[in-house]
């Protein structure tokens, strides 16, 4: 299961020591913590692999916050289960 804590942990790994002073939660915007677009894409791909799902690229492009990404995981899993 992909949770807010899971995504925050991935962000912390990407940022390394830069994450020390940050408070990460569901409202954290990816661009506000200094992640590059490549780092964001890597987090998205990691979550796809971990959850064994594939996001719709247009929906994934609209993800701006940790909460958005968790919601997209849930929506994608629900759509997959219904198919």
TrEMBL record:
SUPFAM superfamilies listed in its UniProt record: ACP-like
One Pfam family, short name: PP-binding
Domain Carrier: start-end pairs: 1-77
Top-rank lineage group of the source organism: Bacteria
The protein's name in its UniProt record: Acyl carrier protein
Organism annotation: Streptomyces pacificus
Lineage: Bacteria, Bacillati, Actinomycetota, Actinomycetes, Kitasatosporales
